[in-house]
Amino acid sequence: MRFKSQIRNVNTFANEEFCASLASLGQIAWLRLSDDSVRFTIIPEKGSQVWSQLSPESIFESLLLQSNEPQNAINLEVPIGGLHRALKSAVGATSAQLRLTKKGNIPILSLTIKTDTFVSGNSVSALGTTSTAAISDEYGDFELPPDVDFSFDGGAGVSGERERTITQDVPVKVLTKQTVEGLHEPRCREPDVHITLPNLLQVKSISERFTRLALSTKASASTSSAISPKLELSANMHGSLKIAVKTDALSISSLWKDLQNPELDPSVVQGGSQGIRDHPSTRMKVLGGDHGDLEAGWAKVKIDGKDWGKVLSVGRLGGRVIACMAKSSEAVQCNS
């Protein structure tokens, strides 16, 4: 089993775009690496689940992956907070390499970071010194001989850049095929409405503002503010999306129009063309009227405001996001 990679864009991978958002949803992630996908899954005891699948090319500049499983699949249990902190230390690095190795009998994800550090002439004073260093590889640590000279004779008054190498290790657990075969995405019925979400930064900003307003009205009314308010997300098959929040003291909404309702592909819908004609979304489009003005054509779901904001942060790395909703449900499925 081997995994070695060069990270393409560590700033995007580490910061608010992805890992930070995953870390806010749960402590442990199931990371599945394969030839054609990189999947992060978080299944908390309560709250939103995340099944985020990315192409290897969007994360890694180069990738070596070998295992005995189909598509060279490797399944790891990863403390996502520890991975986020390790990646965060690589922000601004000239290169970052991530690989699966061992320390003793403990499997680890080892992140090797290279940075350029400016050194002033006065600080370059390590002359004629020797060092003994331990270097970690996939098969354990080995000692360099004591006669290897690591001295740097820069000369007094000489300034310049020096390359600095930092290694961050994140302990992980290798999951067997039997462990993960029972894990699967939540099974949802066919959606009544599917719609492409507008700019996720805008949706996230408005959702968080509505959540804060609802929490502030609860606090002013001397009620418990520990429970996150429910946002009402509704959409129709005529390109309209609405986000609203209602409390005893507040009622506010935001509406988008002229969004896309992606066409269904007969090759992936059960029943082909007839299956599309019988699909719930086709019926909802008819119920909405010629211009989508009728209330019967809207699907509405209620979602936790704080969880929704975190899920939107995860989806930002995937580009276009399609929301799928079923009427009278408390779940929304977002697909990149």
Description:
- The two termini are 30 Å apart.
- This protein is globular.
- About 10% of the residues have low confidence.
- It is α+β, with helices and mostly antiparallel strands.
- Strand 7 and strand 8 form a beta hairpin.
- It contains 9 helices and 19 strands.
The ordered H/E elements are: EHHEEEHEEHEEEEEEHEHEEEHHEHEE
Instruction: Assess the beta-strand content as a share of residues.
Output: 35-45%
Percent of residues in helices: 10-25%
Mean of pLDDT: 80
**Number of helical segments?**
9
Low-confidence stretches: 123-155
Tell me about the largest β-sheet.
5 strands, antiparallel
Whole-number radius of gyration? Answer: 25 Å
Q: Please provide the count of β strands.
A: 19
Q: What characteristic shape results from the CA principal axes?
A: globular
Strand order of the largest sheet: 5-1-7-8-11
End-to-end C-alpha gap = 30 Å
Structural class: alpha+beta
Set out the fold topology.
Layout: E1 2-7, H1 10-14, H2 19-25, E2 28-33, E3 38-42, E4 50-54, H3 56-59, E5 60-66, E6 74-79, H4 80-88, E7 95-103, E8 106-119, E9 134-137, E10 140-143, E11 160-171, E12 173-174, H5 177-180, E13 193-196, H6 200-220, E14 230-236, E15 241-246, E16 251-256, H7 272-277, H8 280-287, E17 298-304, H9 305-315, E18 322-325, E19 332-335
Antiparallel strand pairs: 1-5, 1-7, 2-3, 2-6, 3-4, 6-12, 7-8, 8-11, 9-10, 13-18, 14-15, 14-17, 15-16, 18-19
